[in-house]
Amino acid sequence: MLIYLRVLKESFFFAINALKNNKLRTMLSLLGVTIGIFSIIAVLAAVDSLEKEIKGSLSALDNSTIILTRFSFGPTDIPQWKRQQFPDVTYEEYEYLNRTVPNTEAMSYALNVPPESIKFNDKTASNVGVGAVSAEYYDIEALEIEEGRFFNMAESVSGSPVIVLGHDVYENLFGNADPMGEQVRLYGRKFTVIGVLKKKGAGLFGGSHDTNVFLPVNIVRRIYGGSNRGTFPQVIIKPEEGVDNAEYIAYLSQQLRNFRGLKRQDVNNFFVNQLQGFADFIDNMTSQMNFFGLIISGFSLLVGGFGIANIMFVSVKERTSLIGIQKSLGAKNKFILFQFLFEAVILSVIGGLIGLFLVWVVSLIASQFTGNFEFILSPWNMFIGTAVSAVIGLISGIVPAISASKLDPVEAIRTGM
Fold it and tell me: What is the top-level taxon of the source organism (predicted)?
């Protein structure tokens, strides 16, 4: 064991000397490994970050949650021109389904509307996400109230001018003051604050509920108009626990088909999207992105491998005389073999670590310019980068190491002289 540690130590110093004595040649040889590891880990980090962001926005919702809308969350065989003709789900359809579909824990009508600015006296909170929902949404996402309450069904149906503030919005407008009963200005109207949400993470209506507010959906319908396709209406449904989802979706679809008067031969002019299916689609998409990214990055690693092999062949040639002396003094073939293998691995790992450092720097810079979107360089990805670079060094150094170990000591000394 000690001899291998000594070989590793000597190989490390040989690798460092190669860097010091032939800086340009070594750095050019390592450039391929650095670029390859940078490409691979950058792809993995970007895909992991994207996946975390998407799934984080749905984390508060159960996977059995169903979203009924004219859009499909996944691939579909229905051509785009036909999908563009699909009608939006209406409030009347939501009311009908809420009455007629059994085994439903909660069903909410929601609109997706652009961010707005909210004012209170001389203070303004900008770029605030607006969640226009019916009262049942509180039960679907299990929102947590820090102070006050969420609006009830009567306020939702009548479209009362009440508002629930996200924690950051509350702090921007009121600081530490009590906001209950105060009026804020939104859409050119006054809304009475009835609740403040607990500080929390990502949600369905944007990056974070902390920067959102919630309004009764019917007052937003009056503001935007009941038939405004730009609000992308949807019905969010949470079935009861233990319900057969396939049967539930089939019954739900048939009820909506009946309400819309669709004939037997007509295709559904709506989509029933289940979050579990959406999560599976995201997993499949990210897997494909990883696969193609790794293939492209593999070409860079291939070039890097050739660079490491090249520098090791040069190293063997430069140290031929030293190899002959070592063998004449009793060094075994495996000692010479491991010496050059370790050196190749160490050089390759150095290139990989440089690549990881560059990914870390780029991720920090990118996170600063993308707001709430955070790029993640996980320990697992760092381990993958280090392991891959070590494997590349091992593969690239095996042929030069074998050729060095098989040198005849007399011929090696004579050639070196």
Answer: Bacteria
| Cα–Cα distance measured from residue 367 to residue 52, given in angstroms and rounded to the nearest whole number | 14
* pLDDT at 196 (0 to 100): 93
| DSSP letter (8 states) at residue 209 | G
> Of the candidates 48, 53, 87, which has an alpha carbon nearest to the alpha carbon of residue 70?
87
Lowest mean pLDDT among 30-34, 121-125, 221-225: 30-34
At 164, the pLDDT band (50, 70, 90 cuts) reads: very high
Residue among 154, 140, 282, 164 at smallest CA distance from 215? 164
Q: What integer pLDDT is reported at residue 373 of this predicted model?
A: 56
Nearest partner of 135 among 248, 227, 219, judged by Cα: 219
Token readout for 119 is 């004012």
DSSP secondary structure string for all residues of 327-360: HHTT--HHHHHHHHHHHHHHHHHHHHHHHHHHHH
pLDDT in tens, 302-317: 777 777 787 777 777 7
Find the mean pLDDT for residues 41-67. Answer: 68
Tens of pLDDT along 344-370? Answer: 788 788 888 888 888 888 877 776 766
d(CA 27, CA 195): 60
46 or 217, which is more confident: 217
DSSP string across 160-182: -SEEEE-HHHHHHHHTTS--TT-
Nearest to 7 by CA among 336, 351, 310: 336
From CA 164, how far away is CA 128, in angstroms rounded?
12
Would you call 41 exposed, middle or buried from its count of C-beta atoms within 10 A (0-12, 13-18, 19+)?
A: buried
Residue 166's nearest CA partner among 118, 121, 114, 122 is 118
Q: 68-101 pLDDT, tens per residue?
A: 999 887 778 888 888 888 898 999 999 999 999 9
Instruction: Count the neighbouring beta carbons within 10 Å of the beta carbon of residue 119.
Output: 13
Q: Which helix (H) or strand (E) holds 145?
A: strand 145-148
Tokens representing 65 are: 């949650």
Alpha carbons 215 and 311: distance in angstroms, whole number: 66
212: nearest Cα among 287, 133, 292? 133
Res 205: pLDDT: 42
CA–CA separation, 319 and 244 (whole Å): 72
